[in-house]
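We emphasize that the prediction below concerns an isolated chain of 145 residues; any contacts that depend on oligomerization or on bound cofactors are therefore not represented. The input was used exactly as deposited, without trimming of termini.
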Amino acid sequence: MRTAIGLVEATAVDVIAVEAISDAEARRAGAASREELLAGLARHPQSPVFRVGLRFAGPDPRIAMREQADLSDEEHARLVVRLDRLNRASRHGPWTRAAELALELGREMMAFKRDVRKLKELGLTESLDTGYRLSPRARALRRRA
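Result of the prediction step, given as a token string:
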């Protein structure tokens, strides 16, 4: 799973008895104490309780990809095909190559963000505290367009 810290892998998902929860597990789950966690779980006595094992699985691969500005001819062509496909599939018309995307396109912000995430999957954008910017990979793609 991609998270704010990078990739996280679920290593186990087990149904457990509430009695099996330790103090340390309660604190790792975000509770101040085992008693606090048990009180919260008591509000839903019929619901199963799961112990989920997680481990850090590495950095988000999109970070390294977006820095790749040396595009081979094959990679350039593959990205152009993918962007063209995103444009054709859009109910709002072509959008992947606009400069000030949301404002210029007059798009609703949440729908626009979903589209920008598609570019992020290709390593073409990076998220800022507010907004997005083109990655070095995207600038290299635009130079060759």
